[in-house]
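[job 0412] stage=fold_complex status=start
inputs:
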Amino acid sequence: MRQRHRERVLDFLRTIQKPDRPLDTVAETDSLVESGLIDSRALLEIVAFLEEQYRIDFAAVGLEPEQLTSVSGILDLIEREAR
Amino acid sequence: MSLAAGFSGTARRLRQLHEDPAVVARWQAWTGPLLSRLTPPRRRALLALGALYVVVRRPLKEMAPAVDVRAPAGPLAGALVVLLCLVVVAAVYLAARRFASLPATVRRRPQLWLHGGFWAIVVLGWLVPDSGSVVALALSGLVLALAFLLWRMGYLLLSGQRGRMAGTRFSDHLLYLYPAYGGSGVPYGKGLDHLARHEATSEETLARSQLAGLKLLALAAIYHGLLALMAGLVYAESRGPWSVYGLRVPRVEALLPLGARAPWATAWSALYAGLVWDVLKLAARGHEVIGVLRLFGFNVFRNTYKPLLAPSLVEFWNRYYYYFKEMLVDFFFFPTYVRCFRGRPALRMLAATLAAAEFGNLYYHIVFNDTFLLTLDLAGLRPWLEARAFYCLLLGLGVYVSMRREQQRRGAAAAATPASMPTRIRRIAGVWTFLALIGIWADASSATFGQRVEFFVSLFGLR
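[job 0412] stage=fold_complex status=done
writing structure:
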């Protein structure tokens, strides 16, 4: 299941990443912002993606930006909160 | 190799000095015994010891305007303020520790309750007659001292809300509640969660952090030098022998009351010079604070990072005053973003941006308006509030438009090719001009709203 979520998340990240940084060069636990793959504003698009695709209600679970800055953090959140 | 290439290479090496393995190794060799003794618990203990001094010093410093208003001050009122602040901080700490057992209504909106409590004390201060008594003075002092602690206590509650209090002690939280490393009402370095995430855990990472800190302190010294030069050469203020050659550009706050009578070229020069001055001043101060934090192993982001080279307003906002921006994002932007207009992306972004850049920004400055907090002087507040609210509205709308444009650029195929130099320069000039112009309503001046508008339109030849 995690692998399927992973593919979906990576597909989405490819649509918002900066063009000069290939996604493959960033490890799953690396910070996507600090590695230069996305800028901090792209976090909002990740939030919208998770709300839409996994129905995560951030108003209820709380938005912790640090959770969303790595692929593994996003996957953990999906496993915990997706409905 | 050309001279330019050599110079560029040296500059790059200097910028990345703290990442150079040879330099890090040499620093480790020089400071070896010190580094091995400065373990994370010891570094925290040192900062906690410093915090004990700040526990006493900061409330007394913050209450100084209250002493002006409600003299005479005495040691009893000062001691009361220090003690009451500690009681409030301890109460918020306990609330954060036992967050899960708080009433559901508090758990849903902890920040609202925190600010509600603060305003209850402010109102109490308004109700107590201004008798010059110890109680009246202590209450006023408490209000002013709590304004400094307010946003820090916000981060403490946020830790509790996120379940991050386990394993932390009261002394750990004292580090940023009463920061011995300095700072303003804005919590530089945010709260313990953020600091702990960037804390050096090995001698090598501590060495890197310290070198990065030294670099910032050196930059701060350079910026202070530039400010002194600018004060002499641009403003011709008597700060050095070069003042006689100064351009005598007036400060914006001196020009604003002139309204449309301000000379056109002088007005434009003053606006741009004011922007550069503000950036340099904030960068110098922020580098000192973050530099010291890094020396203690907290390798957090710097507060200011080349904002004058930002090609968009949102980028400038991100680089100019990072911890103020983060505070507004944490306490205003995200809470609005996750709750309002979820089905309408554009409106959602607009609401969250205005909540942070307009409402949050304005509210932050109201909390630090000493005269209003102490005297409920609404008539005195009005001219300042009108100008500030308008500034915040313009800033909020500007940031929103900039964010939308960046989103569109990110999605566009054109983003694959970097902008040409002329395009980049045009964008940077646009950011400078927008900020210099909206700064007309942010400047601390006695000018009325109308005079500021007259000044603005006169810049475009309209009188």
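[job 0412] summary: The mean pLDDT of chain A is 85.
[job 0412] exit 0
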